[in-house]
Amino acid sequence: MDIQKQARRLSAFGFTSCLRIPDAVWVVLLAARGFPLWQIGLAEGVFHLVSLLAEIPSGMAADLMGRRRSLAAAGLCGVLSALCMAFSTNYLHICISMAFSALGCNFISGSDEALLYDSLKQAGQEETYLKASARYTQWQNVGYFFSNAASVLTALLNYVSFYLLDAAVGVGRMLAALSLTEPVVTETQAARQQNPFAGLGRRLRQHVATAVGFLRDDPKVLPVILADGLIGLPSYLTLMFLQQRLSALGVTTAWLGLPVMLFTASRMAGVALGERLPRVGLRRLFIITALCVGFGTLCTGLCPVVPAVAGGMLAAGAMDLWILHQQRYLNDRFPSDQRATLISVNAMSYSLLMVAASPLTGWLGDLTGNAGAGLCLLGGVLIAAAAAAGLFSIFCKKA
Description:
- By secondary structure, the protein is an all-alpha fold.
- It has a single domain, classed as Growth Hormone, Chain: A.
- It is 80% helix and 0% strand.
- The protein is built from 17 helices and no strands.
- It has helices at 3-18, 26-32, 37-65, 67-86, 91-108, 111-122, 129-149, 159-178, 187-194, 200-217, 221-231, 234-248, 257-276, 282-302, 305-333, 339-368, 373-398.
- The protein is globular, with a radius of gyration of 20 Å.
- The model has no long low-confidence stretch (mean pLDDT 85).
């Protein structure tokens, strides 16, 4: 395998996977069509419900059928989601679009990390994973940056045009995935390449048993997975409800993506810092980053425009720093044949929390008349979790 060519093609996929043209303004676009915040929050809840149900099956599909095929399926789901939203005529169509969008994210979740790590492993370079993962993440952040910048297109494009452009990006995502090479580092993966459907039922049963056994036998993995779900909880909700807060504070729709672009710049700074940070205990890193995320989320929910955006930047940068080291820790422990499935278990913890948190955050916004009310609650939860982790560390030392 030409690892440099693989890295370039995976970076192209990472860029297109995060280039989601309507993301910076989708809440405002739906609100302009007459949908209340609780319905928009519920639609986001549908996204995370589907994501929760499909997360582990999609990871299994990637492990059993191939990570490259899974990433190509993600591109197809993105196209279907965009087309459904573009031609929606009622709220049901909105929810169906969100379901396709969730499936697309599911097919990416775990598959890209597994493909990257096993590509490096096949080349004998897995010790460079932190650097390679940081580079891949930065290309994803470039995609996010241009997605946020796309808000200025509201002066030129209507609702349908936004989503037709997004569908075109989905086609590019699918083509980028098909250009990748499937890594092969075990005998099971070699057999899968020859005939992905051979003995699928038997392989599925064995796969599930092995993955469950790993989680049961390694007591250090589940606490890290739960911590990741908690610390990532405000990530998209901060972006989502900041749109409405900024609108209420007088920022016009065409400019909504520009303040949020600073979130992406902060994420890139967090990744760059995380790449240079020496290996550090994850519990200590969780306490520091959870405090930063919690405080930043509180600022986003409470403050005027400038400190609200600054708070979101702090939260975004701290989250990406945490994720980089958490992914390195887990991938070093996960077996190659179950890698995508186990990464999907990690992602499922986030979706499980978001099923409840997303509509609750929207409901609090409607109840109080302030879109930031729910963000204040999330910020408080993260600060409390950091304090609890700190107290647990002190207690363990004394014990």
